[in-house]
UniProtKB/TrEMBL annotation:
Keywords: Hydrolase, Magnesium. It comes from Streptomyces termitum. It comes from the Bacteria. GO terms for molecular function: hydrolase activity. Pfam families: NUDIX. This is Nudix hydrolase domain-containing protein. Its cofactor is Mg(2+). CDD domains: NUDIX_Hydrolase.
């Protein structure tokens, strides 16, 4: 691969001279694979020759395509046969952006990141590491990548993960930085730890005797996407909703409507109760609703936090990718889609997240 334009030799250059010119601009080529488990944690490898963790992958061999190299590396390093058809990122890695030992004469690299998919526990159990090179694998929280990987590798892995969630197609990077940052990049989503809420979900009303800790809402736009709030300081994602206040008079619906108005300047209609989350450690309930969005105003300052949340529309599945709710999240998601059907709304097709940066009415 070269950095020069693929132009025919000029009258001033012979074929040999032109070939030498192009060879002088050659860079390396590499391929890596982003794999997550069902909780959204990223597979990284511990190797004996580097102090940092790595994604599965390696160099593209002579005459080999990047996709075939990625498939080969997964087979060699994890003992798993896979098919890779979706690219997530292409990174132009400069010599300055990824320092190497001087004797390696590193000229730069074009590194492709492919989507290895979400692996179940059964598939993970089938991993067979080679007797050398790969010492161990582990699945880690996205926010931990910066501490475990080299800075350029961590940026690239997070950018690829955001591109997978965003469904915007492969992202173009330079030294791990997106040329055109998405709203997930701009808010640094997944750079800080996701709140861990591994609570069982129960459809139906909250039992007597359980104090209400929180009331949150899956608020649907007409296209089947839901309103998601991103903290501008940490990138943390949450649904609209919050903690009951005295003015709510013990009515969780009043809590949901008030909190949604304060956090997102959003008005709800056709509120439906989904169920609640129980906490094994204490007798409290976190109740969940679904509703249709009627309108949003200008982005407000949330009185509880002093933040102006970044408001986006996302599919429910995209939202869950930004939460650490454990495997029980699947039960809540099923109730969410049941409520969407009752609201006579379509199932949203995956697409890039849309920021609501001004008033909108449906």
């Amino acid at each position: 691969m070269t950095t020069a334009d693929d132009q025919p030799p000029t009258p001033d250059l012979t074929d040999e001279e032109y070939g030498a010119l192009r060879t002088s601009a050659a860079v390396w080529a590499g391929a890596s694979v982003l794999i997550t488990d069902e909780r959204g944690r990223v597979l990284v490898q511990k190797v004996g020759y580097r102090p940092f963790r790595l994604l599965p992958g390696g160099a593209v061999d002579r005459g080999e395509t990047a996709a075939r190299a990625a498939v080969r590396e997964v087979a060699e390093e994890l003992g798993v046969t896979t098919t890779l058809t979706r690219g997530l990122a292409v990174d132009w890695v400069t010599a300055a952006g990824a320092p190497r030992a001087e004797e390696m004469r590193f000229p730069g690299e074009i590194l492709h990141v492919f989507d290895g998919g979400v692996w179940t526990e059964e598939r993970i159990a089938g991993v067979r590491l080679p007797p050398d090179e790969i010492q161990a694998i582990e699945f880690v929280e996205p926010a931990d990548l910066a501490a475990l990987m080299s800075p350029d590798d961590a940026r690239r892995a997070l950018a690829a993960l955001r591109a997978r969630i965003d469904h915007a197609g492969p992202v173009l990077l330079e030294d791990g930085f997106p040329l055109t940052p998405s709203v997930l990049d701009r808010t640094a989503v997944l750079s800080t730890p996701r709140a861990r809420h591994h609570f069982p979900f129960h459809p139906g009303p909250v039992p007597d005797g359980l104090a209400l800790r929180q009331a949150w809402c899956w608020a649907f736009a007409p296209d089947g996407r839901i309103l998601l709030l991103l903290d501008p300081g940490t990138g943390a994602a949450c649904l609209p909703g919050g903690t009951p206040e005295p003015e709510d008079d013990g009515d969780p619906e009043a809590t949901v409507r008030r909190e949604t108005r304060e956090e997102a300047a959003a008005e709800l209609r056709d509120l439906l109760h989904l169920g609640y989350l129980s906490d094994p450690a204490e007798p409290v309930a976190r109740t969940r609703y679904a509703a249709a969005l009627a309108a949003v105003g200008a982005p407000p300052v949330d009185p509880a936090t002093g933040h102006t949340y970044v408001r986006v529309l996302a599919t429910p599945e995209q939202a869950l990718a930004l939460f650490d709710w454990g495997l029980a999240a699947a039960d809540q998601l099923a109730s969410v889609h049941e409520a969407r059907t009752r609201l006579a709304l379509p199932r949203a097709t995956p697409r890039p997240l849309t920021e609501l940066d001004g008033p909108h009415t449906w």
